[in-house]
Known about the structure:
Blueprint: E1 6-15, E2 18-28, E3 33-37, H1 44-52, E4 59-64, E5 67-68, H2 74-80, E6 82-85, H3 97-109, H4 116-120, H5 123-135, H6 151-164, E7 169-173, H7 181-194, E8 200-203, H8 207-213, E9 216-221, E10 224-229, H9 231-236, H10 238-248
Parallel strand pairs: 3-8, 3-9, 6-7, 7-8
Antiparallel strand pairs: 1-2, 1-4, 4-5, 9-10
Amino acid sequence: MGDPILSVQGVSKSFGALAANRDISLDLRAGEIHALIGPNGAGKSTLIQQIAGGLRPDSGRIRFLGQDVTHLGPARRAKLGLARSFQVSALAMEDTVLQNALLGALGARGGAYRFFGAALKDAGLRQAAEEALSRVGLLDKAALQTATLSHGERRQLEVAIALTLRPKAFVMDEPMAGLGTAGSQQLTAFLDGLRAEAPILLVEHDMDAVFALADRISVLVYGQIIATGPCDDIRANPDVRRAYLGEEA
């Protein structure tokens, strides 16, 4: 087995007297979906922010593609190929769906346009954006203002933007949030195929989706990982059932 694509090593983060994360270690391997689950307030969002570069750990290291990225910000990590979708939408609501996707494609290219209209006329950028929208089922809404999309469609747009970055790994924070049953099933099928392109660290409360997708699951409770393993092991783990799954089973 090769080196992990993403490795979190002994990461801790406190806010005053509150220890949000304590000595957390996990990794993401090529071709897999590694789900991170836990009750509200367990510290999942804090950990994801550290992995993506929005927060710096108090201790520990984060490595991506063999490089220590602990002190790199979000933009540098994205440039290396770490794509994140957010729990709270960070879309430009006044822009069209296509314009949002174009911004991702432009970031992937690494160039800049003085006027955004020039980017809209760039055939290569437009093709990359439209292909990503097509893959998530939003191409027919490309000309709509993003604010008019449903909550679930906004999540799909975030995935499309991540795709334009041609990432080496995805960090997805509750992509199923706001989706109905049909939408969740559609996105589950899509993510199942996406792992072949880039592995996914998936934070998700939809346990049907987690158990359908995950190769491994890590369970975070009170800022600590209490178990990591395949789905069947996690289902059967008595500590996990008491701390979390018993509420869902």
